[in-house]
Amino acid sequence: MSPTRLRSVLNLTVLVAALGYFVDMFDLLLFPIVRQPSLTALGVPPGDAQVSATFLLLNAQMVGMLLGGILWGILGDKKGRLSTLFGSIALYSVANIANAFVHSIPSYVVWRFLAGLGLAGELGAAVTLVSEILPRDLRAYGTAIVAAVGIFGTVTASLVGKYLPWRVAYLAGGGLGLLLLVTRFSLRESAMFRDLGSHEVKRGDFLCLFTSGERFLRYLRCILIGLPTWFVVAILITSAPEFAPKIGVTGPVAAGTAVAFCYTGITLGSLASGILSQLWGSRKKVVLVFILGALAGVATYLSLRGLTPAAFYLLAGFLGLATGYWAVFVTIAAEQFGTNLRSTVATTVPNFVRGSVPLITGSFIALRNHLGFIGSAWVVGLACFVLALVSLWGMAETHGRDLDFVE
Fold first, then answer.
1. What is the protein's membrane topology class (predicted)?
2. Largest CB tally within 10 Å, which of 85, 233, 255, 278?
3. How many angstroms separate the CA atoms of 58 and 357, rounded?
4. Which CATH fold topology does 3-183+205-393 show?
5. What pLDDT, in 10s, does the model give residues 364-381?
6. How many angstroms separate the CA atoms of 319 and 117, rounded?
């Protein structure tokens, strides 16, 4: 790439969007790392009680992200990408600081919900903004840069969660978000969004995604291809200490370490998938390879016995890597729809996937009583992967598509 074209990618807007993803990944990783010490401090005994409390908190956060995805997505198309990006950062920063002062499970649930509500807007707004300001043949490099900076979010969260008390860790996460708000005054809005004023179209009309069969199917496919990522994170990784003895791991497994390996893999996978989609000239091929790799990793996780804790952590890292097509997945959603709906779609799609976590965990818990941990994970996991592969098969390729159009 020539220096001029490199500079067109490495602009301030891309870097600020990437720093937003840094804070996003920091927060998403921090809760699974500190969930055991925080629940213990709040009086929840280890074992099944902590598993149930973890799912309660995780589900509250994911419901917040589901509702926030709709809220921030519509605002992004009505009011602008930048206002959405920084409004969401402000909300989850304040909520993270509040998490540091909880003293009961109900208050913890409320603030995890509000943190999820805030987190919902960042990635979709960032990808929409980056997709609209970069040349069409360089968009995947923008995605890769956003993902690369996100790597440091996972590394920072793992260090903060490991070496700082859990309350201080939440304060650090909120403080990082507030610091990022200072950069908003240096950025300009997407030209495509500004030019929408010349079109007689509705902006951010969420309901119109359901009034056309073709448009709804396009939208549904965008959501379903992301299911494998959150099956892996919500079931196999978040509950790693409980799964470990059931799959014959030869020693104890720490939830924080498993999550750190997984999320490091996810961010490395996001970087790799962005670069590969640019080099291969295809989004679909990259996502297919990653989904099949994740399926192989899940089969290994549920089938192998006698792994050492170190080997288990490496497997968690591979599962993260294979499900690390997240940034490309959001880019696909942004590229499928016109400028007047792009933020709505790019913000709601990943959060509808996150919002499916209560359904995934609820199905797992319901089947666990009849099939056990392993059998239940097989059934729920295969359902997620089949839906993703069928949806990917019917999608249009969007690499290099001109995004200056409306629905």
1. Multi-pass membrane protein
2. 85
3. 8
4. Growth Hormone; Chain: A; (1.20.1250)
5. 989 988 898 899 999 999
6. 27
